[in-house]
Automatic annotation (TrEMBL):
Gene Ontology biological process terms, A to Z: nucleobase-containing compound metabolic process
Name used for this protein in its record: Ribonuclease D
Species annotation: Metallococcus carri
Single GO molecular function: 3'-5' exonuclease activity
CDD domains: RNaseD_exo (cd06142)
Record Pfam families: DNA_pol_A_exo1, DNA_pol_A_exoN, HRDC
PANTHER family: RIBONUCLEASE D (PTHR47649:SF1)
Highest taxon above the source species: Bacteria
Domain HRDC, first and last residues per copy: 223-309
Length: 413
């Protein structure tokens, strides 16, 4: 086995770390400078995931050729539309854009054009697509990542964190240029352009119905009334978390919420007798006592609910059943899925693009489960577009899907 190259560590930005912008006058000066720069604008945002409620930005970083780096505190300057106006229709360069676009939009930053170096790296077939790995691949230096999971809501922000944040945009544009050349050499420029254009309209992941059903440990909960207890406790925890602006899991971990729902304590004594799973101290979790009125009230509400108002044990989904059930429920669709997956895998290997980027697994399952009995190319095309497939994906998937359906006609059932 060949040892991985020992890349030199980039420990400081070439132009130093800029002062943190915390007032409107400095923000306007930054906007004027960015407007005077040239070329694409590198952007990044730091959130406090796991520490704060929601996904707002607590630091925004920008860099543009000719004017250097900028660090903005969006808590002190919550309206960054002057920067948006300054950037205009210049191309944004981000890494893993879907992580940052929603929180940037909240402060008034919305791209007209963008280049995602993480997605571009996937399309180019790079084996590792984290920012540090991509920088190593194209530029031969490595970035320190020791501050990637810190609490960016902390104030004042420590200087080492600001160094780290500045470095996150320091090399994005050079990486973008190398990556664009790679995509061009592989004949993937138009594919990337369609993918990046779709990202300019990305507003965030779809809102889930009944998000409380994703509570960790729900498989331990039996019966509709116990399920209702999970719901009421989850909603109570969410309200506390929103009020305190902390991550819900820091109010109460899922494991303890589920334990409470199963035990259904009737009073303070029974509530405080619960023990957090894997607790070393053996003492009650502090939030059990601190918010005991909220927990007991939630449980009391469930006891008073009529049977008809209890949530169903399961929720009907418009998604197809799990593929493992297809052989029994729809054997023709199961055979189609097996063949289509194999064909897409061959395309993935030939094109050097991950198979999930050729067509999302969810789209593939939905189309094949819903496919009409006869081969109707227009139906497949329309359905793929409705599911969000880009034109290049439709062009690639359409012959695979129509051929697969033709090879496994419904009359074989």
């Amino acid at each position: 086995m060949t040892d991985a190259p020992d890349y030199p560590l980039l420990s400081a930005p070439a132009d130093g770390v800029p002062d943190l912008i915390v007032d409107e006058r400095a923000l306007q000066r930054a906007a004027d400078a960015i407007a005077a720069g040239s070329g694409p604008v590198a952007l990044d945002a730091e959130r406090a995931s796991g520490f704060r409620y929601g996904g707002r930005a607590y630091l925004v970083q920008l860099r543009r050729e000719g004017v250097g780096n900028f660090l903005i505190d969006p808590i002190a300057c919550p309206d960054l539309t002057p920067l948006n106006d300054a950037i205009g229709d210049a191309e944004w360069v981000l890494h893993a854009a879907t992580q940052d676009l929603p929180c940037l939009a909240e402060v008034g930053l919305r791209p007209v054009r963008l280049f995602d170096t993480e997605l571009g790296s996937r399309l180019a077939g790079l084996p590792r697509v984290g920012l540090a790995s991509v920088v190593e691949h194209y530029l031969g230096v490595t970035l320190a990542k020791e501050h990637s999971a810190v609490d960016w809501s902390e104030r004042p922000l420590p200087q080492p964190w600001l160094v780290y944040a500045t470095l996150d945009v320091e090399l994005l544009v050079p990486v973008r240029d190398h990556l664009a050349a790679d995509l061009e050499a592989q004949g993937k420029t138009e594919i990337a352009a369609q993918e990046f254009d779709a990202l300019t309209r990305f507003t965030g992941p779809p809102q889930r119905t009944d998000p409380w059903r994703r509570t960790g440990g729900m498989h331990k909960v039996r019966g509709r009334r116990a399920i209702a207890r999970v719901r009421e406790l989850w909603l109570a925890r969410d309200a506390i978390a929103a009020h305190r602006d902390i991550a819900p899991g820091r109010v109460l971990p899922d494991a303890l919420l589920v334990e409470m729902a199963v035990a259904d304590p009737k009073n303070s004594g029974e509530l405080l007798a619960l023990r957090q799973q894997n607790s070393r101290s053996g003492r009650p979790h502090p939030s059990l006592g601190r918010y005991q009125r909220d927990w007991l009230s939630a449980l009391h509400r469930v006891r008073a609910l009529p049977e008809a108002q209890l949530p169903p044990a399961t929720v009907r989904s418009d998604a197809p059943p799990p593929p493992k059930a297809w052989a029994d429920r729809h054997p023709v669709a199961a055979a189609r899925l097996t063949d289509a997956r194999a064909a897409l895998q061959r395309e993935s290997e030939e094109r050097g693009i991950p198979v999930e980027n050729l067509l999302t697994p969810d789209s593939l399952r939905r189309v094949l489960w819903e496919a009409p009995e006869t081969v109707e190319p227009q139906w497949f095309s329309d359905r793929l577009v409705a599911l969000g497939a880009r034109p290049w994906q439709v062009d690639l998937a359409l012959p695979i899907l129509t051929r697969t359906v033709a090879d496994h006609p419904a009359t074989d059932e």
